[in-house]
Specification:
The structure is a single chain. The protein is an alpha+beta fold. It is built from nine helices and eight strands. The chain has an eight-stranded antiparallel β-sheet, covered by helices on one side. Helix 1 packs across helix 2 and helix 5 packs across helix 6. The longest helix has 19 residues. The protein starts with a helix and ends with a strand. The relative contact order is 0.14. About 5% of the residues have low confidence.
Length: 282
């Protein structure tokens, strides 16, 4: 357990310094180990070498930035410590089998390497303890259903597909993305091996639904609202925290429903962000 905690400290250090020069000796120092020993422990725990993990995280973050920003490829190459645009393009093409410029134009799904988190560690910024109680009016949504399995990163890839297809959705009210996650609240959250998820935009009226999209109408519901601050990849840990302790600490009980609503505050999921989690309550 102690070694995993030390490795997690090192992982947090890497994540905080992806846009800075990272010396392997400094990572080992953060973990409180010799570099030789830390190399062995890190690979055993994460199944990555140190250099491989840093490279994958930088390329993944660069891929997200290519889609979510207008920053020139040259600037992104510098941001993620590549010697030149050419070396960045070669590494990007090798990893994702597509040049960065073409990737930006096509918004193509890609294998997303999430930040490695050990022992279901809560996001560093965590979830808010105090719930806000609201009654949300009817929502009319148009989106795409995804079947997820815990422990995988396919959500990011499916979201890339969703964004590329969502251009055809008409009458969007706002740019926030809604996520509808459905599972049986009466069962232990951690025992759910897979669950249904729908990524969607709110619309004012239904008109010309793009192929592959569907309509969902959510009726007026009383919600407890929690805020997740951190990476989307760790939001499942926040869900567990909500259902195992936070609802009880706020004197609340989950409603006898199979759905709860997540309002996402960013257009893209990867990376740190603030996400509102709407949990139906009695």
């Amino acid at each position: 357990m102690e070694k995993e905690s030390q490795v997690q400290d090192a992982l947090d250090y890497i994540e905080d310094n992806l846009k800075k020069e990272i010396f392997l000796e400094d990572i080992a120092l953060v973990a409180g180990m010799s570099l030789y020993y830390f190399h062995r422990v890190f690979r055993r725990v994460t199944d990555y070498s140190l250099k491989e993990y840093i490279r994958l995280r930088r390329l993944t973050c660069a891929a997200v930035d290519l889609i979510s920003s207008n920053d020139p490829i040259k600037h992104l190459a510098g941001d993620y410590l590549f010697d030149s645009t050419e070396s960045f393009s070669r590494a990007f093409n090798k990893q994702f089998n597509i040049p960065p410029g073409k990737f930006r134009r096509l918004m193509q799904p890609f294998p997303y390497t999430a930040p490695f988190i050990l022992n279901n560690k809560l996001p560093q910024k965590g979830a808010t303890m105090k719930a806000e109680i609201i009654t949300k009016k009817e929502l009319l949504l148009v989106g795409k259903s995804i079947r997820l399995t815990q422990g995988t990163n396919n959500l990011t890839n499916d979201y890339m597909n969703f964004y590329s297809q969502a251009i055809g959705i008409k009458n969007i009210i706002q740019e926030y993305v809604f996520g509808i996650c459905s599972f049986n609240m009466k069962e232990d959250l951690e025992s759910q091996n897979n669950y249904a998820y729908m990524a969607a935009f709110e619309v004012s009226k239904i008109e010309d639904i793009p192929e592959g999209m569907e309509v969902k109408n959510i009726t007026d519901t009383k919600y407890a609202v929690f805020y997740h601050k951190g990476s989307q990849e760790t939001i499942g840990v926040t869900f567990s925290q909500i259902f195992t302790s936070l609802l009880k600490e706020n004197g609340l009980k989950a409603a006898d429903k199979e759905e709860y609503l997540i309002i996402l505050k960013h257009k893209l999921l990867p990376g740190d962000q603030e996400i509102q989690i709407f949990v139906p309550v009695q």
